[in-house]
Amino acid sequence: MAMSGGGGGIGELLKTTLADGLMTFLFVFCVSTLGPLTSLILASPLYDSLITFLKSVTPPPNLIVTTLILFVFLLILTTIASLLGGASFNPTSTIAFHTAGFKPNSLISMSLRFPAQALGAVAGAVSITSLMPVPYNQMLPGPRLKVDMHIGGFAECVLTFLVCFGILWIVTRGPNNPVFKVAMISLTTVTLVISGSKYTGPAMNPANAYAWAYVNNHHNTWEHLYVYWMCPFIGSILAAWVFRFIFPPPPTKTKKA
Q1: Domain map (residue ranges) of the chain
Q2: Per-residue pLDDT for 170 more than 80?
Q3: C-alpha–C-alpha distance, residues 201 and 205, integer Å
Q4: Residue 127, Cβ neighbours under 10 Å: how many?
Q5: Which of 51-65, 155-169, 225-239 has the lowest mean pLDDT?
Q6: Is pLDDT of 39 > 90?
Q7: For residue 126, what pLDDT is reported?
């Protein structure tokens, strides 16, 4: 998942902010189609041979198809993000890379980028909701809390910690091939989504969670702020701290006078 620094001047900062909004719009719009697309592929007679093969392997076919679709989406999105200068579509990954020291951002930069990501996510959720055919609307609920608020907050914190730590390792210490990086991020994301599905959805992305909370008219509640914003941010910061502790940056060389 692409990350970006804060930029040097006002023009660069505005460019990064707009790029973040656009990328988050595309991310929410595309990822929200995972359920309907998986259903269509598995139900299509054109894929009988593929389904027969998938049923012979251990993971359920729907998980394999969903992972493959997510891989394609992330590959396209990260390519676009790179062309836009390294835009981000997840506030927690922006925080994690900033805290780990890889992509420093100023407070002004983050105060502009995070609202832009939230607005882009809302636009994506509203757009896909209005365009999605009626039979598939029930597949667009977005993340929602299914347990006690504190249990849900703890779950989002742990899941975001794991996904941010995983992305930090994959991006900075994983394979050099960007396709392999995206494949690993896709597998990590799907695994954690399945693990957290009975708790919070999950989101692991405050902007995405805010978008669907807005669509369902509970975006301005303390529960939403606590579970889907505060706890994920704590998880991402902890992930960055632990990553820096395990993989400390090389010491800076001082020039002798």
Answers
A1: 10-246
A2: yes
A3: 11
A4: 14
A5: 51-65
A6: no
A7: 95
Per-residue burial over 4-19, b if 16 or more Cβ lie within 10 Å, else e, is bbbbeeeeebebbbbb
Condensed to tens digits (0 to 9), the pLDDT of residues 88-143 reads 999 999 999 999 988 777 778 888 999 999 999 999 999 999 999 888 888 876 88
Task: Please state which of the four CATH numbers 1.20.1080.10, 1.10.455.10, 3.40.50.10490, 3.20.20.140 is assigned to the domain occupying 10-246.
Answer: 1.20.1080.10
**What is the average pLDDT value for the chain, to the nearest integer?**
87
3-class SS letters over the chain: CCCCCCCCCHHHHHHHHHHHHHHHHHHHHHHCCHHHHHHHHHHCHHHHHHHHHHHCCCCCHHHHHHHHHHHHHHHHHHHHHHHCCCCCCCHHHHHHHHHCCCCCCCHHHHHHHHHHHHHHHHHHHHHHHHHCCHHHHHHCCCCCCCCCHHHHHHHHHHHHHHHHHHHHHHHHHCCCCHHHHHHHHHHHHHHHHHHHCCCCCCCCCHHHHHHHHHHCCCCCCHHHHHHHHHHHHHHHHHHHHHHHHHCCCCCCCCCCC
Average pLDDT over residues 218-245: 95
